[in-house]
Specification:
The chain is about 35% helix and about 15% strand. By secondary structure, the chain is an alpha/beta fold. It folds into 2 domains: about 280 residues, Alpha-Beta Barrel (TIM Barrel), CATH 3.20.20.70; about 80 residues, Antifreeze-like/N-acetylneuraminic acid synthase C-terminal domain (Type Iii Antifreeze Protein Isoform Hplc 12, Alpha-Beta Complex), CATH 3.90.1210. The strands form 2 sheets. The chain has an 8-stranded parallel β-sheet. A two-stranded antiparallel sheet has the order 9-10. Helix 10 links the parallel strand 6 and strand 7. Helix 2 crosses helix 3, helix 8 packs parallel to helix 9 and helix 11 runs parallel beside helix 12. The chain is elongated. The two termini are about 60 Å apart.
Amino acid sequence: MESIILNRLKEGKFILIAEIGVNYYDIAAKEGISNLEAAKKMIREAALAGIHAVKFQTYKAGTLAAKESPSYWDRTEEPTASQYELFKKYDSFGEEEYRSLKEYADSEGIEFLSTAFDVESADYLEPLMNVYKISSSDLSNIPFILYQAAKSKPILLSVGASNLDEIERAVDAIRSVNERELVLLHCVLEYPTPLEDANLLKIRTLKQQFPDCFIGYSDHTKPEAGADVQKTAYNLGAQVIEKHFTLDKTLQGNDHYHAMDPSDAREILRAIEKMDLIRGKGDLISLETESAARANARRSLVAACRIEKGTIITEEMLTFKRPASGISPSDMALVIGREAAMDIPEDTILQAEHVKGFPEPDGR
């Protein structure tokens, strides 16, 4: 399928990515269906909500984390203490399952992608995706970044928990082998991210530091009515927003507790649509809808007294009043010192024919 992400990037349009990750395991357990059925159900619900792309996470616990790997998430929401133990719960899918999800996403008209966490998955995902997504956790894993970048696909790179020099090094590595579209996603690796830690101004800084990259936001804040976080991120320059996705935010564990559901996604998309409406195009021209005000609220030169024919017009004989149906005050210098071509009663809105030798518009 043609890339929705790339097309919208090039057109300057907003992109919302549903990070399904591995949340489908819990949805499957809750609804008594298979993991694959649950994953497809989440794809369908994302497509129905108007989301542009779905993203999964492809890994095996044994290649991702050592058995002694401590947690870094909110243990009141996800009680598992070991990364290895958590990942082991959710690593059953392989190439066959992801190929099936890709085909299903295509049929639903939504773009498929998955973050690869090892070389094997990076290889078998390559023909299934238009775009690679690289996790913040691999920002310093330059060999793996180079491996994926060398496949010459556009890249979404999350830059959470990183300093400028680390981001520069990762970008330089990508650019050494890949000149395709590159999106840097501001991200805070705090699950969930409190509002006071969202640091959305970093989006603007990324735009300044990396003018040749697209900029986005990988959001881990809890959804709120009004989508203020997402609207702010968008208005600061995030063209892409990636957010975890669930069908039940009350489920404990993994990434449900800070995820959006289909209702939240619709609200985000409505909010961004409203932002686009408000923001307009930014052209430095008057709008067609302002034409009545432009004609009637602006002023014209007006005779401050009666001016006899043949009189040399002086500044003291003029004032300016609404509407703008006569000679503009900006052309006062073209009126002063010329003769009145006819008698001009007091409070007359001056027209070109009132002033002898007043230049035609093309002769000014």
